[in-house]
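Revision sheet: structure tokens.
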Amino acid sequence: MNTIECMKTRRSIRVFKPEKVNQELLKQAVQAAAYAPSWKNTQVTRYIAIEDEILRKKIAEECCRGHNRDVLNNAPLLMAITLVTERSGYERDGSFTTARGTAWQIYDCGIASGLFTLAAHEVGLGSVIIGIFDDEKAAKLLDVPKNQELMSLIAVGYAAESPETPKRKTVKDLLSYR
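Predicted:
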């Protein structure tokens, strides 16, 4: 599949088959996402794969609500996406390079997360990024290292649904020239 086809056919999958995710496929997706661009090549994004059903369900029940809880309870794998703090957007002396401050690390992590979901799609895995959850509690449950910050959760598995393509804005709506 070419890049544009991958981008156009990837969907947010919220219903998964119960089968365990093949670790080799997961490694391929993470390896591909490692090529995400980042501030001065800092590569701050990290991935924690949660296969343990008890921990996955604990995170779902204690850190999520509503539909996100249901999605995580249904997913055979949960990826916790973290970023190494105080690298992206910083100079060697610890000062910020731009007025955006810590925003660059979040930006870099978002790029890597997006590429991870595309790579997962390429290798036959479905995924959906979960952003609404109790990040402090989830970070404690996952024992996220002190120099990292938990940014998002990504439910991963083999798709048990084929969602329709959501309506997209036109190029005319999105693009302007000056």
